[in-house]
């Protein structure tokens, strides 16, 4: 495993851990400023909309696992194909479970850190 591959795997692990802890600021720090997310049934959206939606979830607990199926580094860009299983549990409610694949493009920025630049999330209930 190369240093870049290890760093990208760490981005995914940090994202998952921060999501479990409700640490939105850490998650936002793992994104480029011009990040674009694509999910079924919605127009593509960026970092501000992601943050607003996350804040709108209130005390909902997020848990999940990510399995990187494919990872390729192409210079200062890389892509990963993940299999994700997650659950979002609102306070006093039942968990909403989703699973499926994502295709994520990451960019190595000027500070040497890898960040999510584009993400196509195909999780289904």
From TrEMBL:
Residues of the DUF4440 domain: 8-116
Pfam families, A to Z: DUF4440 (PF14534)
InterPro entries: DUF4440, NTF2-like_dom_sf, Steroid_delta5-4_isomerase
Protein name, UniProt field: SgcJ/EcaC family oxidoreductase
């Amino acid at each position: 495993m190369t240093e870049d591959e290890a760093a990208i795997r760490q981005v995914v692990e940090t994202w998952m851990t921060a999501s479990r802890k409700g640490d939105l600021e850490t998650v936002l720090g793992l994104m480029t400023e011009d990040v674009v997310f694509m999910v079924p049934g919605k127009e593509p959206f960026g970092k501000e909309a992601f943050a607003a939606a996350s804040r709108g979830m209130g005390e909902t607990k997020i848990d999940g696992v990510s399995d990187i199926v494919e990872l390729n580094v192409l210079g200062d860009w890389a892509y990963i194909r993940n299999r994700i299983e997650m659950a979002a549990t609102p306070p006093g409610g039942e968990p909403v479970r989703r699973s499926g694949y994502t295709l994520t493009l990451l960019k190595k920025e000027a500070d040497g850190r890898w960040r999510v630049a584009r993400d196509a999330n195909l999780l289904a209930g």
